[in-house]
Amino acid sequence: MTTTDIIVRLVLITVIFLITLVIAMYSTYAERKVAAFLQDRVGPNRAGPYGILQPLADGAKMFMKEEIIPARSSKFLFIVGPSLAIMTACIGSAVIPWGQTLMIGNYALDLQVTDINVGVLYIFGVVSLGVYGVMIGGWASNNKYSLLGAIRAASQNISYEIAMGLSIIAVLMTTGTLSLREIAAQQHGFWSHGWFTWNVFKQPLAFLIFIVCAFAETNRAPFDLPECETELVGGYHTEYSSMKLGFYLFAEYINMFISSAVMATLFFGGYNFPYMHHLGLSANWVTILGVIALFIKIFCLIFFFMWVRWTLPRFRYDQLMDLGWKALIPLAIANIVITGLVMNFIK
Questions:
Q1: Nearest-angstrom CA–CA distance, 250 and 245
Q2: pLDDT at position 3, please?
């Protein structure tokens, strides 16, 4: 790798990191506006026009609040918990293909930080690490409510990771690769040879299982049992304040953004859009439109996350575990068997 390649990669990492933070920041604003719309309210409307500066006001509030570390907590781990949560949330974007190759003069810029041939496994590895930030923070707080919330989060994430992994196996069987770039490339356009190319049409059950598991993995309602206020005060981050609490809350929105990007790539064609190769435009313009198309898909999925949160009531914990172990895992296994039979007997 040349010096130019290293510099370009660092710039790309910085741009993706900043975009991730901005989207996560304004997801808090969008969530409150969506909630207000669904509940026939106005929502934030004081900080700037239409409340557009509300996320900046919330960030300033978080930074200015007093830092409190409980006297009997494990102080080092108390700080490590939220740091690990935000770090694992951010590094998941490294293998997501944000677009095709962009030509800048004679330099070909791949709009992806790194294209590893086991990108799907990388995503699952990062997801698995995320629970450590929650577990460490809950245990280090030396608070029974925090510990119960952390245990709930750990058991919930472990349970739903199994169903999520099994749902992806069916997609990998049809695509034959673990590379997210190759999976996106195989879903070129929208319609080819008389069939839809997006995996959501080929594996609808896998998508349904995956998105339900994504709600559970990101601790979003109706699967937000780890931070159930009525039972656990605030859950695993009960004892946190200032930006340590902000890191936990911010990590949730970053995870929601990355989960939406992964779902858009795996099931909705990623940067592909209908008739993209029939527009008569240059390759660079098609690439730029592809990036825009990907972010539109991501924003639609983020809206769906928010819509569900303000529509469905929270599950009981036994219902949550029953759904994961008794419904989603058997369905995912059945989907794998059906996919194998179809691939073997219907060429």
A1: 8
A2: 84
